[in-house]
Each structure stands twice: as C-alpha cells, then as structure tokens.
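Duplicate of #3305? Posting structure anyway:
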C-alpha cells in the first residue's frame, strides 16, 4: 500500500472513530496494539515529512470532529427522522413509603445527614439494579415531607408535627435532584383524603385535623379522614397537588388505593358522613349515597388530571387502585368490591383516560384461585380503551426463597407478553428488595440485566427533541464523545449507542452527563473486536427520543470504500 494511502487510512481511523468507556471488561489497546497502528505508516519519514505530503483542503489535521446535524443543514434541506437501534422500554419502579417510617426515613428523629444518606442508599440501589423510576410518598397524612404553606411538616421526619428538618433542607427537592442525577423519574405519591394515621403521633394543634375540623371525620381505628364529598376537601387536596406540580420539577403525581377508607378502618361501620349526605338531599340531590360518594371521587380524579395538564402537560398522573374492580369481573374473580367499599370506580377512570398510567395493585400469585394475576391483568388490559400505560403493581415478598423469585420473574414476563405496547411494573416495595438478595440478584441478572427507558406518552407530547450535536476527540488510545444540546433542560436522558463489529449496544446516561469514553477495541489480542459505529440520542421528559445520527467508525468504512 502506498505511503499516502497508509497514512490516510490511519488518519481516517483516528478522526472517524468515536467511543465511550462504559462497561467493565472493555479493554484499552495494549502498547503492542498501538504499535500496529503506527507501523501502518512505512518507517523512515518523520511526522513533519508525512504532514508535508498530505494536504486536506489546506486545513490542519483536526483533533476534534463535530457531527453535522439538522441544526447545521441548509434551510432548504429537511432532515429525515431516523429511528435508533433497539433500546429497551419498560417502566421499572419501586414504592418508597414514608408512612409509619416503612421505608424512609428508617425512623423519625434522624439527623439531616442520616436522612440524606439513607435516601441516597435507596436510590443508588435502584440505579444499580436498573430501575428507572421511584414512587416517593411525600404526603402520608395531610402533612408534608417538603416545604409547604398548606400543610405542616410530617411527623415521620422529626417525630413532631410541624417541625422542619435541622439543619434545614427540603426532602422532596433532595429526592428529586438525586433521582434525576441517576437518570430516574421521581413520582410524588400522595394520599388525597387520609388526615391522620395511627402511627403518626398525637393529634396536635398544628395537625390539619385541628386546623380544618369542618372537613374531618374520626374512624374507629384511631385514624382521621377528610370527607371526600365536601367541596372544601376537594379544593384543599387539589391545591396541595397543584402546589407541588407548580413548584417542583417532578415527573408524576401518584395516588394509591385509599379513597374512602376500607370498612375495617371504621370497625365495619358505614363511613360517618350522614350529615353531608343529608345536606345534599335537602338541596335537591337525587343520587343514592353510594352513587353520591362515587361521584365525588370521580369529580376529584377528573379535576386533578385536567389541572395537571393545564399547568404542566408533561407531568404524568397515575393511580394504583385496589386490583379488583368488582367481584365477577372477570367471572371467576372473588374478593373485595372497591366500587362499593372504597367508592372508587377505577374502571371509569381508565376508560375515560383521566390518568396517564394505571397501576392496579395485583398483589396475588399467578395460580391464586379467585384472584389470578394474569386473569386480572388481561381484564384491565381490555378496559384500557384509551391506550394509557398499564403498569401493574406487583407484590415481591411472598417469601425470601426460590419460589418468590420464580413468581416475580414470571409476573414480569407475563406483563411483557400481555401488555406489549407499554411494558412495566411497580414493585411493592423497596424494603422487600433490600431484604431479598436472592431476588435482586435474579432481577439484575435476568429481566433487568440491561437498562431501559420509560415508555413514551405520545398523547402528552409526540414531538421528538432535537438531536444532540456530537463532538469526538482521540487521546490516550480512546475516543471521547461529547455532546451539546440547545434545550438540555428539557432532556431527562441521553442514550449512547456503540457497536464492536456488528452488534449495537447502548448505555443510558442521566441529563448531567455529556461525555463518555470508549476504547478502540474490546477483547484481547487473540480475539479483539474493533469499534465500528456510534451514535447519541436525546430523550425528553415524556420519553420521546431524538433522531439517530450514527457515525461509522474507522476500519470498516475505509475498507468498504477502497
């Protein structure tokens, strides 16, 4: 091969190759491998001699290469959208309960530093096991684990209602920032009507039970509940939700199964709202009491959805109701009737599309007679007429043994097969994960082996973000890929694609990362694989992915053109 062609080959390999240091086991070239690159140029001439022979557009050799994208194209050119290679899409979430200090903080009264260290440990654990979302309980009993002018600081933080953390910090803001720094979504979990929990200490003057007594009713188990039928209850809880939506950079608002309380909470007696219903009838109301209760909850759910969308359309609204709508739906299902006990018409909310994701609590085994997991999942899937996300909640604590592992793996697999348009599950709860190393090992070596993006929500926004502008540099026998974006504040993740030989792989990075390195080869001298292609995409807060502008790397392109 002539000297000029040899040098052009080497020059092209260096300037076109781009890479990223990602996984352990991808090796940098050895000194002998690097010598092979230099030996491609015939010995003898010095570097100065070689440079004097080669002229490329009379410009000096570039040490940085910038990818041309649609931003640099001429006005008359329209860029074609190019889909990326495969990247897994699946919602992988865990609940973090703060009520009764179930998951965090581990007890009330911890110092600020101890609370933050525990929070980071939980988030690091989820990140290490390739989860991409956390459902964080910020309002367990008409209180706040965040700065609020509407409700007092939570008892579960300090052991005292109304007491701010000291040294001061905002726990919700801390969780949001830490989750986003790990590329995970943060969904704020609120209980819309529960005003006091039995583990929440004494009812004190700062409690909402005392400051808003007109909307409160006591239950026989020691809890207090807001009366869902009262307009003041709906206005207050809606104000709490919208205060969070407006002030915090959250990814979702989440309600669980507590609407009207379970009958057992009041000793099996009817919910104590007789005066409210009497007032309704006296003003000409015609609905039966059960229908009147359901109407109040339906009105509230619809209101929350529309108010969120009016303020921040990209913020998802999700509900995780009790897993059975009514006994007999489908036919073999038996169990609690949430329609007539919790006055929650969850099927209506799904049918009407008043939610963005639906997470029915399917806390039963696959072979459970009367509450079969696949039968219930299939029924809810058929009711998903608005094509919202159906991400069931699954129980993962049937026992810290092989049977529990098999049950969890099989439920994830069934969900992937039965809800193919938008895969995902939420796991109750993070505490069970921490206590079951057999399960977590099986997850990260099995269904969660590779990272995944949260599925997109096209009804919220279907416009893909601009592709990032990519630059590459060659130094120390590696390729450094870096990128910029004109609207990086709207980006949640970056996806870096790379391939050695012919197989595309990827790594998902959080929005704070804007560079990465890769070696020129992986493997060893006897069986090494050259890097042959890269690409970077941007993913926005609703899951839309930018066009994929791939770049062919080095040796394959040169040989193909010769």
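Output from current build:
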């Amino acid at each position: 091969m002539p000297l000029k062609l040899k040098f052009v080959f080497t020059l092209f390999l260096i300037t076109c190759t781009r890479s990223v240091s990602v996984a352990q086991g991808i090796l940098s070239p050895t000194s002998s491998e690097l010598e092979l690159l230099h030996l491609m140029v015939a010995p003898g001439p010095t570097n100065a001699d070689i440079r004097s022979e080669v002229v490329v557009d009379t410009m000096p050799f570039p040490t940085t290469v910038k990818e041309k994208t649609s931003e640099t194209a001429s006005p008359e050119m329209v860029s074609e959208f190019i889909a990326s290679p495969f990247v897994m899409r699946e919602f992988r979430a865990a609940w973090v309960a703060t009520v009764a200090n179930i998951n965090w903080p581990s007890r009330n009264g911890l110092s600020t530093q101890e609370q933050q260290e525990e929070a980071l440990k939980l988030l690091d654990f989820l990140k290490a096991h390739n989860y991409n979302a956390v459902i964080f309980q910020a309002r367990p009993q008409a209180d706040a684990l965040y700065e609020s002018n509407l409700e007092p600081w939570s008892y579960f933080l300090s052991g005292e209602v109304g007491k701010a953390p000291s040294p001061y910090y905002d726990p919700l803001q801390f969780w949001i920032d830490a989750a986003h720094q790990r590329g995970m979504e943060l969904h704020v979990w609120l209980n819309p009507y529960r005003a006091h929990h039995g583990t929440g200490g004494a009812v004190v003057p700062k409690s909402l039970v005392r400051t808003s007594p007109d909307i409160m009713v006591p239950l026989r188990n020691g809890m207090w509940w807001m009366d869902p039928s009262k307009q003041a209850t709906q206005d207050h809880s809606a104000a709490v939700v919208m205060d969070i939506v407006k002030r915090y950079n959250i990814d979702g608002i989440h309600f669980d199964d507590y609407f009207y309380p379970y009958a057992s909470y009041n000793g099996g007696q009817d919910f104590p709202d007789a005066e409210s219903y009497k007032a309704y009838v006296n003003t000409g109301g015609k609905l039966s009491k059960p229908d009147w209760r359901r109407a109040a909850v339906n009105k509230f759910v619809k209101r929350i959805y529309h108010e969120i969308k009016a303020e921040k359309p990209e913020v998802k609204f999700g509900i995780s109701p009790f897993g059975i709508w009514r006994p007999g739906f489908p036919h073999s299902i038996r169990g609690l009737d949430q329609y007539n006990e919790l006055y929650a018409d969850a099927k209506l909310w799904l049918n009407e599309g008043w939610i963005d994701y639906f997470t029915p609590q399917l806390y039963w085994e696959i072979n459970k007679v009367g509450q079969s997991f696949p039968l219930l999942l299939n029924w809810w899937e058929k009711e998903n007429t608005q094509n919202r996300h159906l991400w069931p909640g699954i129980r993962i604590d049937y026992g810290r043994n092989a049977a529990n592992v098999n049950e969890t793996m099989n439920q994830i697999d069934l969900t992937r097969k039965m809800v193919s348009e938008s895969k995902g599950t939420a796991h109750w709860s993070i505490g069970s994960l921490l206590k079951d190393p057999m399960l977590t090992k099986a997850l990260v070596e099995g269904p969660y082996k590779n990272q995944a993006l949260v599925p997109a929500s096209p009804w919220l926004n279907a416009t893909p973000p601009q592709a990032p502008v990519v630059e590459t540099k060659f130094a120390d026998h590696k390729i450094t890929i870096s990128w910029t974006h004109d609207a990086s504040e709207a980006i949640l993740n970056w996806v870096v694609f790379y391939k050695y030989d012919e197989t595309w792989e990827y790594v998902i990075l959080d929005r704070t990362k804007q560079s990465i390195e890769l070696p020129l080869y992986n493997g060893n001298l006897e069986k090494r694989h050259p890097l042959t292609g890269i690409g970077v995409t941007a993913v926005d807060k609703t899951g839309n992915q930018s066009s994929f502008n791939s770049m062919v790397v080095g040796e394959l392109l040169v040989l193909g053109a010769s």
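Confirmed duplicate; merging threads. The two ends are 11 Å apart (CA to CA). The chain has 17 helices and 22 strands.
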